[in-house]
């Protein structure tokens, strides 16, 4: 069995969940008439992220560590998971705003009160950079907390 098979599996689950979330955002109008509110709505995905991280680390504890996992093992596993989810979700962000909702940034800028500020914040490079920062930072925080919650020793 691959050393990181659990993390890779859950990173792909995370990626699929994030893609579904993006499709939900689009269907609810957060890529068109509510585009400027999308970053705030997207924060709700943080709850789903936490659950996915919890399930991933719980599986790692059960299947790899036979229910005897120290905090440092959970933390290390979560860091690897964070790395993989960051790569996959960055791809999802690129696909979403290039193929699924190619007019998102135009819509957000058009709807914004401050067009100059919107042009700075609503573009693909900024969204990719923010995704990388968010997924890594939330991943580290979630990992530390969940590893503490489920540690055996």
From TrEMBL:
Pfam annotation, one family: DUF4199
Keyword Transferase: no
Family annotation (InterPro entries): DUF4199
UniProt KW Chaperone keyword: no
Transmembrane stretches, start-end: 7-24, 39-57, 78-100, 132-150
Highest taxon of the lineage: Bacteria
Keywords associated with the record: Membrane, Transmembrane, Transmembrane helix
Name of the molecule in the record: DUF4199 domain-containing protein
Organism: Flavobacterium okayamense
